[in-house]
Amino acid sequence: MKIVWISYPGGAAAKEVPELLGCAENALGLQEMVRRHGHELVTTSETGPRLDPILADASVVIATPFWPTYITRERLAKMPSVKLLLTAGVGSDHYDLAAAAARGLTVAEITGSNVVSVAEHVVLQILALVRNFVPGYLEVVGGGWDIAKIAARSHDLEDKTVGIVGMGRIGQRVALRLRPFEVTVYYYDNRRLSTAEEELLGARYRALDALLPLCDVISINAPLTPATDRLFDAARLGRMKQGAYLVNTARGRIVDTEALVAALKSGHLAGYAGDVWYPQPAPKDHPWRAMPHHAMTPHVSGTSLEAQRRYADGIRDCLERFFAGKPLDRDYLIVENGKFVSPSYSYAFS
Ligand code: NAI
Q1: Which of 170, 198, 200, 169 lies closest to 186 in space, CA to CA?
Q2: Structural domains in the chain plus CATH codes
Q3: I need a labelling partner for 340 at 20 to 30 A (CA). Which of 269, 272, 308, 348 fits?
Q4: Is-above-0.90 flag for pTM?
């Protein structure tokens, strides 16, 4: 059987850093295991039309959000042998989930594999914005010493109000990591937590439109689904507090591209950070590269070397079970033989 692994080119780092399991060349460290089972693992960084002939006879596709391959309904129609779609990481919106379900396929991701990595990045980016870190760093690199220019936009996080939209595994870890900063935390999720969970996290529930004007900082941590696509449009950005910051490590399409640029240019928002874009890789002229007051990174928050080890282990587990004809780990399943089973996704697709 043919398994196709699609990921970013590792270049020189693929050899120099063998722990860089997530690049195309290092193939999650799975080449030997797949060969031992008598199957073929094909690796590629193609995402455009040249990928189609490679996928035509694939039984399993493994893709990664960091180099997303958009497996659309049209593309799936040209893949008659495919049975299993796997995501090395968390967030499987690069697959047309409704089309995959209609075909009776199974879709799984490595739930939990990089949630700590992302939560740490969220805290980093909140602090980068609030403390005005990036302009300070650039001042040093540029040989300057303009204290007033940097300090005029620098604040303490202490006593600020932070909103978390999507209080799942990452959102909860962000809340816990923010506790020592003495902030007030509100959250919105379409599934409200129990009182005991809220107390543990130090977070209070608010409906989204009530949360928006309350918060100095908002972190988006919900999956991209039809319900969250452009959830932060011009109207919702407009309801955010004047001078607030927005951090989005979830998916680029949850925030309207042009509306965000306008909100930063007008000064309504004081800053934006995150590591997710649409499309990816972001073209050189993507407006978010040049907009004011941003602290963006390429899509790296969930792919620290530790995270790569965890999602490589998870993919290995999925393939071993699949080869043995056993069901996949329930925690990993989004769609099982055509049925939505993950609570985080089924809300939007049922
Ligand atoms: P999770 O499934 O544990 O939590 C997601 C939460 O969002 C759930 O509590 C769910 O009820 C909530 N949710 C779903 N639809 C919602 C809606 N319409 N409004 C409000 N809340 C909604 O997932 P986890 O692990 O916390 O990851 C969240 C997302 O973060 C992923 O789906 C992925 O898109 C993104 N992610 C990004 C990474 C990166 O490297 N930047 C790495 C890992 C995840």
Answers
A1: 198
A2: 2-113+304-340 (3.40.50.720), 115-296 (3.40.50.720)
A3: 308
A4: yes
